[in-house]
């Protein structure tokens, strides 16, 4: 569907993401081109030119916006941010103090972090961390001779009672029962 320039202008003012990839706009005064959904400050109408493809904007001497990244086929900053957070959690989930420092170092507010995780993964960061810790605990209970206290500490739990409560809630049995279940299976072999 071809749009006339005034229709494109309305799309730009509305930051309508449904038109991303259908056209791009360049701002003559800055030399930058953007996607229609770019959240940057709206330029003056007489400073704007429209392009059907990003290559045309490049050829006309415009450079891509660093905010909306029109030079990328796909740009999903929320997903990229969540992946960055997940990498930090995956690396430091067994060390609560280090994990907190690394998360703070990402420069994302606590509320934004929770909202992003909930939107992208359907769970909170704490739920994700607990899932990782319990999976690690299950692996250790099945494959090591360590005490339950040692396993709880290795998995990043600060107390044995927290570990027991969460394990029972997520696995539907106590860590002791889980360990015995695997010991029984080993003896049957």
TrEMBL record:
The keyword Translocase does not apply. Keywords: DNA damage, DNA repair, DNA-binding, Metal-binding, Transcription, Transcription regulation, Transferase, Zinc. It comes from the Bacteria. Residues 83-181 form the HTH araC/xylS-type domain. InterPro entries: Ada_DNA_repair_Zn-bd, HTH_AraC, HTH_AraC-typ_CS, Me-P-triester_DNA_alkyl-Trfase. PROSITE patterns: HTH_ARAC_FAMILY_1, HTH_ARAC_FAMILY_2. The keyword DNA damage applies. Coiled coil: none annotated. This is Helix-turn-helix domain-containing protein. It comes from Clostridium simiarum. The lineage of its organism: Bacteria, Bacillati, Bacillota, Clostridia, Eubacteriales.
């Amino acid at each position: 569907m071809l749009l006339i320039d005034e229709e494109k202008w309305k799309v730009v003012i509305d930051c309508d993401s449904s038109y991303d990839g259908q056209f791009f706009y360049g701002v003559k005064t800055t030399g930058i081109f953007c996607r229609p959904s770019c959240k940057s400050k709206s330029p003056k109408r007489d400073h704007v030119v429209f392009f059907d493809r990003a290559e045309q904007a490049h050829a006309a001497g415009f450079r891509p916006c660093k905010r909306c990244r029109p030079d990328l086929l796909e740009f999903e900053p929320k997903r990229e941010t969540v992946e960055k957070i997940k990498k930090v959690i995956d690396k430091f989930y067994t060390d609560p103090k280090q994990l907190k420092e690394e998360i703070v170092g990402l420069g994302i507010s606590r509320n934004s972090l929770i909202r992003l995780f909930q939107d992208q993964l359907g769970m909170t960061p704490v739920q994700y961390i607990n899932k990782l810790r319990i999976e690690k605990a299950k692996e250790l209970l099945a494959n090591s001779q360590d005490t339950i206290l040692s396993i709880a500490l290795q998995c990043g739990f600060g107390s044995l009672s927290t570990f027991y409560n969460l394990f029972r809630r997520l696995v539907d049995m106590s860590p002791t029962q889980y360990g015995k279940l695997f010991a029984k299976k080993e003896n049957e072999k």
